[in-house]
Amino acid sequence: MKHLKTLLFAAVLIVGTSFMNAQSKVAHINTQDLVEAMPAMQSAKAELEKLAKTYETDIQTMATELQNKVKQYDAEASSKTQEENTKRMQEVQGMETSIRQYQAQAQQDLAKKEAELLEPILKQAKDAVVKVAKAQGFQYVLDSTAGQGVILADGKDLLADVKTELGF
What we know:
- By secondary structure, this protein is mainly alpha-helical.
- The protein has five helices and three strands; from the N terminus they run H-E-H-H-H-E-E-H.
- The protein has a single domain, classed as Skp domain (Protein Binding, DinI Protein, Chain A, 2-Layer Sandwich), CATH 3.30.910.
- Helix 4 packs across helix 5.
């Protein structure tokens, strides 16, 4: 009987130890807050806003030029031949088309520039999260950004530690 108790105790101890080893350390971080707080993100936003304003100014200039042409052509329409008015209408339509094409190209350029600027920032953030998580012994890090699927984030929040790692 004493031998059975010792054997049972040893079995419980082994099962308990293996259960504790099987537990994974999990942390969480709001990556959106992290990226938005990074100084590199602030300069990237400023650069994107500057580029967007440049495109917006160009589009406004083109639109004003188009409006002026339309007013001029409308005022002169009665004194011109049908053929001239048709040519003018085609010119106005061509200007409208070029403005729409320029807007589409501007949007594509902005999206490309945004991706180009964000890639190194996101990589830096991810590398810092991985470094901090490994240093603190975490096996999993969940993204607690709203809408990412984490319902309860009651464990260790790595945001402050990762900000320290990144130097801000």
